[in-house]
C-alpha cells in the first residue's frame, strides 16, 4: 500500500488533476471560472458526499457555474478542516463503497472556506455579499436551540443570551446569519434563502423559527423583514457517510491519491426539497434531486424508519460490543429486532410516497444498513442520543399511544438507551462519553437501575411519558429484564412475544 511520501501518490490539487489515475473521474469544468452562490455552514463529510456532489454533477453538465460553495464553520475544529481543504484547493475525493465494487471521483464545487473566528466577522461579511443567494447548514439536529419537548425556541440558552447581548460578534451560526441579514437589509442587497440540510422534520420551519426568534430579541423590525423576505424551504437529505479515519485515508492512497480529508459513502443518495427559494436556485432536479410540496411525507419516512432504525440498532449494539452497523445487521437477533419494530411499530405511522411504500422502505434500509463495505461505527450512530431519541424515536411512541398501536419494541429501544448510558458494556468494557449531556445521562442511568421511572422523568426528553402507564410499565419491565438477564434475552423475549 502506498504511503505519504510514496512518489506514486498524486497530491490532490488543481495543478495535479491531470495526473490522477485514469480510473478516478475529475471535474470537467474550469474551476477557475466558478463563482460563489452558496455559503455552507458546518462543512463536514456529509455535505461533501451529498449537497456538494449534486452541485458537482450539475457543473459537470456545464450548469450552475455561478453556484459554487464557500465553506464556513463556527467551531474550532472547523478551522482545522479549512486548513486541510485549503492545502488541496478545496477538492475532495469521494469513494463509493458498494458490495459490487469500489469507485472514486474527485469533486470541485467548493472554491473557498471562510477563516473561522470567535467573532465570526468574516463569515458575517461573506454572507452579506450580494453573490451569496443561499446559506445552507449541517449543524446536527440538536444544534437549532429548540426545546426537545415543546419544540419552541430556547431563548434562555447561554449561547443565545450572548448573541442577543453582542449581536455584532455572535458565537452561533444563527447569530451570524442574523447579523449578515441586517447588513444586507441596511445595504439594500436583499435576502437569501436559508436551507437546512439536517435530519429534522420540518427543518426549514425550524430554521426559520430559530433565525426569526433570535432576530426578534435583537431587532424586532429586522425580524419582521427576515420573516417576510427570506425563505426557508423544508428538505430531506439521505446518504450514509461514515467518519473519516486512517483507514479511509489509506484507502484513497491505495488508489494513488494523497487526500488529507477524503470521504467514503454508500451507493445511495436522496434529496427532497420544497421549491421555495427567494433568490434563485440551481436546477438540482436535473441531477436527481426532487422538488415537491410534500417534503414532510418523505422526511417522516426517512427520519422515522432510517434514523429511528439507527437508534434501534445503536443502543443494543453498543451494549453487546458490536462495532459497526453492518455487523449489527449481520447479527440475526439485532436484525430481527430492527425489522420487527420498523415494520410493526414505525411503518404503520408513515405515509407512502411516490414509488415507495413504508414496507419497501424498510427493506431498502435493511439492505443499506447491511452493506459490509460501509464501516459506519455503532458509536457514531449512538452519538448525541439526547437529540436523536427525542427527534427520531419518541414522536413515534407518542403516535403509537394515541392510536392504541404497539409500542413494546420502542419501549425496549428506550430501555437499551438507558442501559447504554450507564457507561459499561456487558463484557465489562467502558463506553466512552458519547453525548453533550453524558454526565447527567450517566448519573440518571445509574439511578434508573433501581428505579426505571427515574429515566423517564427526564422531561426535557420524554415530556409526560413517565405519566403514561402503558409506556412507563413497558419501559420499566424491559429495563429490569436487560439488567437482570441481559440484552440478548430481552430481544429473544420481545421477538417471541
UniProtKB/TrEMBL annotation:
This is Mannitol dehydrogenase family protein. SUPFAM superfamilies: 6-phosphogluconate dehydrogenase C-terminal domain-like (SSF48179), NAD(P)-binding Rossmann-fold domains (SSF51735). The keyword Ribonucleoprotein does not apply. One of its GO terms (molecular function) is oxidoreductase activity, acting on the CH-OH group of donors, NAD or NADP as acceptor. Residues 294-481 form the Mannitol dehydrogenase C-terminal domain. Keywords: Oxidoreductase. It comes from the Bacteria. Residues 37-286 form the Mannitol dehydrogenase N-terminal domain.
